[in-house]
Amino acid sequence: MRAGPGPLRLTPMEMTILPQLAVATGLGLLVGLQRQRTADEVAGVRTFPLITLLGLGLAILSDLYGGWLLAAGLLSVLALIVAGNVARWRGRPEPDHGITTEVAALVMYGVGAAVGAGLTAPAVVTTGLVAALLHWRDPLHELAERMGDADFDAVVRFGLIALVILPALPDRDYGPFAVLNPFEIWLMVVLIVGISLAGYVAFKLFGARTGAVVAGILGGLISSTATAVSYARRSAEDPDRSPAAAVVVTLASMVVFVRVLVEIAVVAPGIFWRTAPPLAALGALLLALSLALLVRAPGDHAAEARDPEPPSDLKSAVMFGALYAAVLFAVSFAREYLGSGGLYAVAALSGLTDMDAITLSTAQMVKGGALSTDTGWRLILVGSLTNLVFKAGVVASLGHARLRRRIFAVFSVAIAGGVAILLFWPD
Q1: Cβ–Cβ contacts within 10 Å for residue 109, how many?
Q2: What is the Cα 265 distance to its own chain's centre?
Q3: In the chain, N or C terminus with fewer CB closer than 10 Å?
């Protein structure tokens, strides 16, 4: 056992604990949300994560101080639950019969023990989580109350995708090019569904009727292609909304590049700064074009959107996993047998309707040394350009002429800028 505060550099044990803290908090929130929605007065959206953190912390500390600590924690939680239920049965007039404060006190006892054992970083992170759960009482309760059955089903399905299916998959390579790893493929599914689910939750929190800027950002987080389809149809139904719709579609296309950069940073952080600048440049151009549209649009920037479908549908997740595996295999095949022309053809085709698969597969291959950094960002950029072409086609076929004119103008400038980056960006 180490005495005193730990060093600033994380120890191997601390590196193992930090992801466990995130998992424990997520699991507790999942169950806590469900109990909060049933108006449970003893334990809800804040108390369950605290209890889960307490169990994790005491289990870790039991290896240092002895198993009695874990047993004492269990007995303490049982006693608090009994006390909370007794108060409810007696009809105590106070509005909050929960045990959040008491459980938080037990967690902080464990934090003190962790600091004494030298586990400084986990103790600090746990304290931050406890403070956030205690401080965000009203927003968390409001979130639980505003969630409908479909919204909660989406959260539960994401829990199934991330916490049940992922750990059960084998972490080994298969296939003729040894690039098909079931665990890594599904991990990419978890990442993409998680980003889309975050956008969906934000949409539900902000509401369907928002400004064009917010609608475009949220639309890009959920699906820029679906956003283009939705707003093209809306412009056909109400041509006066075409200026706001153009802002939304262009902003959603810009957010695609934010998604791309986040995906590269998560999957292959070592190559981020070598691949990000040209992609960020095209994203910045789309942002400038969005702002120009916003300035030229009429004063009414309202953008009323239909509710999107929850993004954690298991069938859609499986389809994305299959698409990602197919793109990964196709890029490997093209690299081996077709040369650079084949690589760019694969990138162009895969980028038509979805940027995530080509981004993740390329980042993985650059990270593993199968592709150079310059080839990697160029493949992603080619995919993004064909994605813009596809969305322009969607607007052309579904949208009003006023929307078509605006989108063709800004997308033509963006595509020209992307081609210039491909040709003239220094290696």
Answers
A1: 17
A2: 13
A3: C
Q: What are phi and psi of 303, to 5 degrees?
A: -140, 105
Predicted pLDDT at 157:
83
Dihedral of alpha carbons 282, 284, 286, 289, sign: negative
At a CB cut-off of 8 Å and minimum separation 6, what does 332 contact?
177, 179, 365, 370
User: Average pLDDT for consecutive 10-residue bins of the chain (427 residues)?
Assistant: 49 73 70 63 67 76 75 73 63 54 65 62 73 71 70 78 83 81 88 79 61 77 85 86 88 94 91 93 95 76 56 76 86 84 90 89 90 93 95 92 94 96 90
**Tally of residues, the chain:** 427
Contact assessment for residue 328 and residue 180, using Cβ atoms and an 8 Å cutoff: yes
The rounded distance, in Å, linking the Cα atoms of 268 and 67 is 40
C-beta of residue 43 within 8 angstroms of C-beta of residue 84: yes
DSSP at 426 = -
The pairing of beta strand 302-304 with beta strand 209-211: antiparallel
Query: d(Cα 372, Cα 366) in Å, to the nearest integer?
Result: 6
DSSP annotation of 174 = B
